């Protein structure tokens, strides 16, 4: 039987959400909950959010290969381990730190900056806010 490959988007999408951003889940079992992005996967178009999309893995206790026999940390504990699973970036919205509402992300450019990379910054798309997002 042929092994199935993981579905990777043909063309990576520009992630407007970065590590450390506060996001709100807009669909799924955790809808309405907020959390901080702890890891971003631009090639998979996914993000991992602290305390959101918790899964339980059943792991067997095992000994780390090549570890010192007298080292107490050589045994990796087993049991039921709860951890965050990545979720699609389209299921979360960035929360604007100024108006504290979920928002779409736009970009604007500063005038007079030397490097083009420093000119571009993210902005809140709410009409009554429109401020820069850190």
UniProtKB/TrEMBL annotation:
Keywords: Ribonucleoprotein, Ribosomal protein, RNA-binding, rRNA-binding. One of its GO terms (cellular component) is ribonucleoprotein complex. One of its GO terms (molecular function) is rRNA binding. GO terms for biological process: translation. The keyword Metal-binding does not apply. It comes from the Bacteria. InterPro entries: KOW, Rib_uL2_dom2, Ribosomal_uL24, Ribosomal_uL24_C, Ribosomal_uL24_CS, Ribosomal_uL24_KOW, Translation_prot_SH3-like_sf. Gene3D superfamilies: 2.30.30.30. PROSITE patterns: RIBOSOMAL_L24. The keyword Ribonucleoprotein applies. Residues 16-43 form the KOW domain. Part of the 50S ribosomal subunit. HAMAP family: Ribosomal_uL24_B. Belongs to the universal ribosomal protein uL24 family. One of the proteins that surrounds the polypeptide exit tunnel on the outside of the subunit. One of two assembly initiator proteins, it binds directly to the 5'-end of the 23S rRNA, where it nucleates assembly of the 50S subunit. This is Large ribosomal subunit protein uL24. It comes from Chthonomonas calidirosea (strain DSM 23976 / ICMP 18418 / T49).
